[in-house]
């Protein structure tokens, strides 16, 4: 998968630097440039293809409400994560109605920004890289990306007895394959037992990150087979 091209539109030089460091250290993204004013942002977007803009609505020389409409009309294939104050409820409503991917209210933690970027990475590649017909559960999971943190950066979200590395290994394996796998097959690939693989897969299923399909056999119970919900 290609890296996603990001433009930072932020007036504060310190925040520009902090956002830049996060993006530069994430191989899924490429930082194109940082701009400090509305005109600079529009000029940059006319010259280069941008997947995602980190946008402060209070950017200098940028009329937030009209500016959002102009951005959507001029650059319809670009997405936006707003990083801004939430003091103006009408502006927040307008941004959400305009279809921004996420609205992060300052001040926010950098883990929250990393989670938003991870959300966007999965969301974007799920839309653009899909090769098979959509199923309802996949679309439901895709729509929920805007409010669901797909990263396991917060270990408190992982049940006792499950390990972060094993979760990541299972997800990486499923993401790299479009076919379905049984718990036995996942376990054999990762060198863990069938029962251990099944515990992880069931947790991922409850977290709406993995979808279960049933393979019916002539005798006995149908076999559970697993795949990523978003591929």
Automatic annotation (TrEMBL):
Q: Which domain of life is it from?
A: Bacteria
Matches recorded under SMART domains: REC
Gene3D superfamilies, sorted: 3.40.50.2300
Q: Cellular location of this protein?
A: Cytoplasm
Keywords recorded for this protein, A-Z: Activator, Cytoplasm, DNA-binding, Phosphoprotein, Transcription, Transcription regulation, Two-component regulatory system
Q: Which GO terms describe its molecular function?
A: DNA binding; DNA-binding transcription factor activity; phosphorelay response regulator activity
> Where does the secretion signal sit in this chain?
none
GO CC annotation terms, alphabetical = cytoplasm
SUPFAM superfamilies, A to Z: CheY-like (SSF52172)
Pfam families with a match to the protein in the record: HTH_64, Response_reg
Q: What is this protein called?
A: Transcriptional regulatory protein
